[in-house]
Design a protein that fits this description.
The complex is a heterodimer.
Chain A: E1 3-12, E2 15-25, E3 30-34, H1 41-48, E4 56-61, E5 64-65, H2 71-77, E6 78-81, H3 93-98, H4 109-118, H5 134-147, E7 152-156, H6 164-176, E8 180-184, H7 188-194, E9 197-202, E10 205-210, H8 212-215, H9 218-225, E11 228-233, E12 240-245
Parallel strand pairs in A: 3-8, 3-9, 6-7, 7-8
Antiparallel strand pairs in A: 1-2, 1-4, 4-5, 9-10, 11-12
Helix pairs in contact in A: 4-5
Chain B: H1 2-25, H2 33-45, H3 54-88, H4 101-115, H5 123-143, H6 148-172, H7 176-187, H8 198-214, H9 216-222, H10 226-231, H11 236-258, H12 264-276, H13 280-304, H14 313-330
Helix pairs in contact in B: 1-2, 1-3, 1-13, 3-8, 3-11, 3-12, 3-13, 4-5, 4-6, 4-7, 4-11, 5-6, 5-11, 8-11, 8-13, 12-13, 12-14, 13-14
Classes of the chains: A alpha/beta, B mainly alpha.
Chain lengths: 246, 340
Amino acid sequence: MTLSLHGIAVALGGREIVRELSLDVATGTVVGLVGPNGSGKSTALRCVYRALRPVRGTVRLDDADLSTLPLRHSARRIAAMTQDNGSDLDFTVSELVALGRAPHGDRDPTIVREAMKRVGVDHLADRGVLTLSGGERQRALAARALAQTPEVLVLDEPTNHLDIAHQIGLLAALRDTALTVLVVLHDLNLAAAVCDRIGVLAHGRLVAVGPPREVLTPTVLREVFGVEAEIVAHPTTGRPQLLYTF
Amino acid sequence: MTIMFTKCAFGLSLALLLSIVVAIGLGPAAVPPQDTLRYLGAALTGGTIALDEVPVYEIIWQLRTPRVLLAAVVGAGLAAVGVGVQALVRNALADPFVLGISSGASVGAVTVLVTGVVVGVYAVSLGAFLGALTAAALVHLVARTASPLRLVLTGIALAYAFQAAMALLVYLVPQGESTATVLYWTLGGFGAATWGALPVVAVLVVAGLVVLRRWAGDLDLLALGDETAVSSGLDVRALRTRLFLLTSLMTGAMVAVSGAIGFVGLIVPHLVRMVTGAVHGRVLVLAPLVGAVLAVWVDLLARTVVAPRELPLGVVTALVGVPVFLVLLRRRAYVFGSTR
């Protein structure tokens, strides 16, 4: 099953935020979206989880145009961890995670418990979400998305409140789920370590896409991000890693 | 949690029934509960009572019973609408009147009163109901989207306009009654309850309670934020519009018969969440029960404390509500809606 963006364009407040973006996410792969602030990463993701509708182009899931599916049907297949950082109300963690079952119309406790275990929040099950730390809450939200038992997982900066152990833990857990993942990441080294392919966005356009090794080059880093960096291969995994020059 | 929820629901239902019987019996002419039950039985089954009991029976059946039932219905409705509006505008401090609906109702009531455009026993209530719906339509029209912040700000702004319009009406047409009407609608009360007016509001409110309870799962999702809600398959805009319509209709119906009774719709949702947690499926069962019990007792206080005169209901709810609210605010264990 493949998720694909076909030449999507999004305009917000009269400005084109995303222009002619095409990107394929093959079944079971992890594709990262990177780019400087305001390059349109989150906006592109919002089209996938249907908070926005592109003005041109389509988002397709197995050749079905998403905009033709009822919201609830696509929600059974695509789950998202958005920039919404929690809840207005003091749900317990297990109540929050159980809300992931909403599109399926059940509260299957086995799935809920399994999802909490996967991201290591099962010990917080009865804690109120408003009393959690930012990182704990973020992991609870990841568990909520997993409880949706989707085929595709869309994540908007899922690691921004996490300590380094949990950053690695969450991304490794997501990679091990064998889900199809589209993820926005700021940390390019994390992206290089977990993504099968990386797309680089600049001013709403896709300027490079491919395996990390091919995409994360000194030229791209200089021209898109405006930083100088050396690229070295990780001594054990062989993945590219960036050494920034200050 | 589920066992406790069932116990709470059962206990509160029982408490509500008892409160209704006791409250019907109490007043300037106090009647023991067994007599109250006998009169009610006689009224419902067409039984007979002694001739010398007729005056008391008339008080019980024609005055107090509709009044206490109205208090229960409106208390339940206000508590549930409070939960609904707090979810709609994503604000823990919202109450049923935050969208300017009660001010609109007052304008409608006073307009009818001073102009006499509608006549009849329920003219003022009808005016209040139309005023409430007009206010709701205006708020929705001006806010254009049902986005939470715009709704609240528009509601607050228009409420000022309605209050100004009402003050102007009272100023220009200073009939003896208009000032009293304004005061009545602002502070609320169940003194106008009759068997004639009860069915309409009861049907609207009970139907509204059922519908709100059916939307409970969607209200849970709404609390996670619009982005997460839509990614969970919820059409957020459509839900907000439906929720706005339903809560406006319920509020309008209640304000039309009992004025703007404060604090019930604000406090009860929080009280219930403290005990049972935030999940709307439970809150929307318990909050109406708590609201009903509270309103029945508050009304009893209002009509007995300074009998034969009556305290305005808003005064009593404030006396009970303000301390409860302040204690809530100081409790560390209860996190008030927003993040710390």
